[in-house]
Amino acid sequence: MTPVRSLKSWLRRPTKQPRRGLLVERLEDRITPTVSDKILAQPFDLQTLPTTQDLIARTESANPLSDLANAVSHLGLSHVIDVPGSAMISSGVLQIHLRDGVVPKNAAVTLMATGLYSFVSPNYVYAAADLREAIPNDPQFATQYPHGIIDSPRAWDTTVGTSSVVIAILDDGLDINHPDLLANIWTNTYEIDGDGIDNDGNGFIDDKRGWDFLSNTNSVTPDDPLLDPHGTQIAGVLAATINNNLGIAGVAGGSRIMPIKVVGNGPTSSLTLMRAINYAIDNGARIINSSINIDPFLQDPSFRAAVARAYDSGLLWINSAGNLNLQDPARASLTDILVVSATDRSDAKTTYSNYGWGIDISAPGGSSGDPIATTIPGGYGS
Question: What is the distance between the alpha carbons of residues 321 and 265, in angstroms, rounded to a whole number?
Fold first, then answer.
């Protein structure tokens, strides 16, 4: 198989290339009778989602807030747009706050007509249930047989990972005090923990070990350790400390994990995601892992803009293919993200994993009755 780009080039990102048709290791040869040239899954319907009283807009202007104020004054939109309540999200991206009672979609159309913006979008609110990937209902879902399949020991002869490679995990939080993860939790060295001051001026107070973008706090602990073990599971598979005579070994057990909470009690919005992704980029992450259902976001221009910024910043973004046994899942249309399907102990597609055109690679993911050993909040399991 000829890859679109090597992992090395992902991290250096010399030139963006168009996606070419890929085989999924040997996986597609076994299970896909034909290869389509388009994504077959239906896009998530944004029209069904609620929104907040905010818009997200992108502009090339050097003075976005001044331009907004001028447009509001010139067009008589002070009853529609709250300029003082609006703010910059990142370079060229605005959060525009609307007055109570204003219909966001109508306001977006009005602002697009000014010609100031490349996109104006409502701040969509996604239910937490829409984002969580369904996994086999087995208490031991997540043994370490994958190391034999992917030949981790041979890689470990060269490196077990390095602290300079930070992996941002966008998930439901994780147990940062787990003894097999503790040494590898990313630490914001420019922040003084617990002093109530934003020491590094990044807009987040006491973000010593990541951020919860749902509750806007520095606590990345799962809301419920029993119901929300997923982020801790992912962290263990990726970077449980290696050679410490304890528990399990992560694939890159010398790397650092940046906890970023975007799923939990309550909904996730476009702004939640954009801020979380910007945080990963701006605070030194080299890799983003988001093993969650991103299909609902594909038509959201705010999410697509954040993905593009991560790509252009040189980050490697990895996301699961999904767990509904679907051919050609919608998320595979994203050429800026590495989409990974799941295989079992026999290196065959699991019964649950999505597959097909646009899936970049496959990797061991465990199956019902034959789980992958990993960390969970407070211990080990699946």
Answer: 24
